[in-house]
Structure prediction request, 185 residues.
Amino acid sequence: MMKTNKVSELHIIEDDSSIFKSVKYSIPLYQRDYAWGEKEIVQLIEDIDDVNLSENYYIGSLIVANRDGVYEVVDGQQRLTTIFLLLSYLGLNAENEDSLSFSCREKSNYTLRHIIPILADERDKYDVEHLQQNIISGLAIIKENIEKYTEEHRDEFIKKLKNVVIYRIEVPDHTDLNHYFEIMN
Prediction:
């Protein structure tokens, strides 16, 4: 019997349904490495900053395959990684810091595992040679844009994150993910 699609409406930050709460995501090898630049990251931050606190803002979807409790990301990897970096920068992801990983990309995984010391500029706690530069660039863009905010504006931005929703859509079991990925892209 084939499992039907399962759709979950997840808030970026919230108690029980947060996107990274008690969940693990894996970026498969067929996905490109993290590649969002300033244009895409600033647009995401601006979209969140424009959220009306009286209603939810839907930021798109994340297509995944549930592989023994780990969600393999089929589509939406760039947005998911940027959200992970943004939450890490804001200090809202500490208990979920191991919830995102890349298959067969050790530099990316090393960088994600060392985000806290990277953000704190504790260079004695990580090896610069092992860092994935695109992720470091993404963090720098986030930092540059959020540092412009006053403390009050930053607090309001975090409140707005509670209204940001993403749909996580699970593909049916036994889906040919490579073929699905090709069709989607």
